[in-house]
């Protein structure tokens, strides 16, 4: 599915991994069953350029009442996910990825898109990033929100097809199909093997 890469990935690329936390892992309140399956692929992507990798963490509010509107509705339904009730360790990155920090950077966010964090754009500017390789969870929620913002900011966006997952197979498949049919001029979808073969890091440049 999708057209693959349109060319080499240069040394200014950054790897942005979204929300690979215990929160979304097996036994967490919002489990994405595929997360363990994609984890080795994310480890491989991170290992290519640890200092150019960024990991987001989704941080819920302390209470449902701390947020307005539909967010309050969401956390009123999922009060067990508010920090008032949630075990703090569930917010941590999975250990296979946490070991990369530092030099990989940690970006906390409270909304779906990684760009909702005030820290992300300055960090990408510091890295001189012109391309974002996206991995993580969930394809049809936080990955989708992040890639739309990345496109709006003008980044080249590459989704690692075998390094993203969702708790909904139908949602995951629908997003990948949509990307190939509607956004193929602005979003590239490719397997990690193809991405790693095309990625020219600074050390190899």
Question: Which labels suit this protein?
Answer:
alpha/beta, 205 residues, Rossmann fold, globular
Molecular structure report:
The protein has 205 residues and is an alpha/beta fold. The protein has a single domain (13-60, 92-198), classed as Rossmann fold. The chain has seven helices and six strands; from the N terminus they run βαβααβαβαβαβα. Strand 4 (131-137), helix 5 and strand 5 (156-165) form a beta-alpha-beta unit. The radius of gyration is 16 Å and the shape is globular.
Secondary structure layout:
Elements (H helix, E strand, L loop, with lengths): L12 E6 L16 H14 L4 E6 L10 H9 L17 H4 L6 E5 L10 H8 L3 E7 L1 H14 L3 E10 L3 H14 L4 E4 L1 H7 L7
Parallel strand pairs: 1-2, 1-4, 2-3, 4-5, 5-6
